[in-house]
Amino acid sequence: MEGLLTRFRALAACSHQHSGYVHHRFHHCAPGRGKRLVLSRAFQPQNLREDQLLSLEGRSGDLTCKSQRLMLQVGLIHPASSGCYHLLPYTVRAMEKLVRVIDQEMQAIGGQKVNMPSLSPAELWRATNRWDLMGKELLRLRDRHGKEYCLGPTHEEAITALVASQKTLSYKQLPFLLYQVTRKFRDEPRPRFGLLRGREFYMKDMYTFDSSPETARQTYSLVCDAYASLFDRLGLQCVKVQADVGSIGGTMSHEFQLPVDVGEDRFVVCYRCSFSANRETLESSQRNCPACQGPLTETKGIEVGHTFYLGTKYSSIFNAQFINVHGKPSLAEMGCYGLGVTRILAAAIEVLSTEECIRWPGLLAPFQVCLIPPKKGSKEEVAIELTGHLYDHITEAAPQLQGEVLLDDRTHLTIGNRLKDAHTFGYPFVIIAGKKALEDPAYFEVRCQNTGEVVFLTKEGVMELLSQVHVV
Question: Is 106 helix (H, G, I), strand (E, B) or coil?
Fold first, then answer.
């Protein structure tokens, strides 16, 4: 939304001549209005003192990053146990929007959404030797019959076994790009940084099945490009870097790193030739780019995405085959691709926010618009009803904003107090009915939180501005 309000300064200056708007007509512009979303009814614990935040997390040394502190302070999350959090309404709204953006990008390249059980049988993991290889990271349990399971941190075994169970696959059906967005579990030895590193988290994991190494690499590039498109839409400047395959395996891997000081990863970039890699993939003493010998610049980052070219590592174990063009069975070439959904939310807040105020990627803000009417008993009290009518008009005249407008109906508080809260929560647009709302025509103060711009607009100006807001 950068610069969006600037276009409306001229509109504000000349709206007396062009608005065609008078006060009394606005009072009757919203027949048949729906129920308004009001802040007073939101389940949103907030305004916790710093000492309360520390006691919530249990150990004062754990409250060490901005996103964790802000998300606790304004009531986006609440600790449930070590490394596990209740996701409260604003966070759920933002996460649902992120999932919609992910769905759009994955389905645009042919992705099909599935949902696999979190409980994964031990025999699947023993088949790939990862039951032992993963060690204590796996959260393991037994049912009443003594059968062993783990709570899946990832689903390579499960999805490959599923595809292998389909005995009549043809090369004509491939590639398959199967993905899910589900809870994942990892027994972190020391959970920290809120949603950036927890024991329970949401992840998008995609698994692809191709008919040849060549097409599998094309699919790999396709998914990487979709990831780049996703982060571009979110306004996050992620860097794709070469990475180690780790316990997942395969022959090629890349991470998508978001540069930030609290990041636990270190990656290097060569600005001469655009080479980039996780530091752990290079020799510890290496200071020059292996591609061009140029200098390497090291940066801290948060891994928000990871891609792997698996080849036949898993398909050979589970016998995931298809009938090739010659009528013979062949093993599927696989890839797997992860996005940390809750981690992306927290990382975006970490990067975009100030020390005191949350800022969201525009598409992910829980609400796009917050309306603030005057305080009850003030000289401007008559404009309280005016603000309600503006709410109704916005939601009816701009259908894309239905469910995106919040009315701060706490009129026992001053405009200043509520504006401070709105600034902290980071609604992209805050619209205030102050003294100028009593003029004829009425003017509303419009603040764009992401740019700091302020402008006064009539109802028509407000509607023209908000008609350009993109939502998912």
Answer: helix
